[in-house]
Write a structure and sequence with these properties.
Elements lengths: L2 E4 L4 H11 L5 E4 L16 H16 L2 E11 L20 H11 L9 E11 L5 E12 L15 E3 L4 E2 L5 H7 L1 H10 L2 H8 L2
Parallel strand pairs: 1-2, 1-3
Antiparallel strand pairs: 3-4, 4-5, 5-6, 6-7
């Protein structure tokens, strides 16, 4: 069975990605399952740069095909912020609540019709041989006036999904995976997977 290591220590992402990959016939492990997995600095200027760097460095360090994603929130009224800095929007040591509070403060006074935003995810699957594939996905929504819901992680409580009438944090895991940026990126990656496995001899 093919083994893939998820190049992340974000427990929320690990739960989501393991659920999304469970029917692949692939053993999915995380960085927590391997000793001495290096911390990779996310210092790229784009989601793709960060995702590629994480996947490549983890694959080469472990000898196992690595799947990395870099994702974030793009808010139109903030000229695309927080973007690649989503995890550190309120500072290097910020937690989810601090980031959400800063976002809501920065959006104070912005009219409802101008609160459009989207989550974006870019995934890279990198084999130690140097072969790789990439895919991306987006999820459209608006920034709510206040947090709601206790599910998910990150900006989910303040990201309202108009088509479902709820925040991302109010969705079941199955609902979220069906519409999320990460779910869409992984679905796009799946279509490339057979050729990739043939190419890498897996």
């Amino acid at each position: 069975m093919k083994k893939i290591v998820l190049a992340t220590r974000n427990k929320g992402k690990i739960r989501e990605m393991q659920a999304l990959l469970k029917d692949f016939g692939i053993e999915v492990i995380s960085a927590f399952d391997l000793p001495d997995v290096p911390e990779v600095a996310e210092d790229g200027e784009t989601f793709f740069e960060n995702s590629m760097k994480k996947a490549r460095e983890i694959a080469l360090a472990t000898g196992i095909t690595a799947l990395a994603d870099d994702s974030g929130l793009i808010v139109d009224a903030l000229d695309g912020a927080p973007g690649v800095h989503s995890a550190r929007y309120a500072g290097e040591d910020a937690d989810d609540n601090m980031n959400n509070m800063k976002l809501l403060a920065d959006m104070e006074g912005v009219a409802p019709e101008n609160r459009t935003a989207r989550f974006k995810c870019v995934m890279v699957l990198y084999d130690p041989s140097g072969a790789w594939i990439s895919a991306e996905g987006t999820c459209e929504g608006v920034i709510a006036l206040e947090p709601s819901g206790s599910g998910g992680f990150g900006y989910d409580p303040v990201f309202f999904v108009p088509e479902l009438g709820r925040s991302m944090a109010e969705l079941t895991p199955e609902e979220k995976n069906s519409i999320s940026h990460r779910g869409k990126a992984l679905k796009a990656l799946r279509s490339q997977l057979p050729d990739f496995l043939d190419k890498t001899g897996s």
